[in-house]
Amino acid sequence: xxxxxxxxxxxxxxxxxxxxxxxxxxxxxxxxxxxxxxxxxxxxxxxxxxxxxxxxxxxxxxxxxxxxxxxxxxxxxxxxxxxxxxxxxxxxxxxxxxxxxxxxxxxxxxxxxxxxxx
Length: 118
Fold this sequence. Notes:
The protein is mainly alpha-helical and 118 residues long. It has helices at residues 2-5, 33-45, 50-81, 83-113, and strands spanning 10-13, 16-19, 22-25. The protein has a three-stranded antiparallel sheet with strand order 1-2-3, covered by helices on one side.
């Protein structure tokens, strides 16, 4: 919907995002669900109070959701502009970046909420 609000002629249908002839299929792996599972498991498994765990989830889940929306918008625009570059950026750059982002969120939670010096 952000693509539509920005004035672009984007079409969203079921699990597809279309932008002027370019169609992006959003499969389960693109939803960020695995990153949510990973950060949730890391937070739940860490020996700290329930309050700290709830704070961690309250911080992590919206951040991952938002980052994933930005990632999908970026991928859609990139695919529209340069399909060859999309494959490289999607398969390598964004995969490692998103994993790093999850680790960064978890590290932030450990340092600022749980107060562990890392």
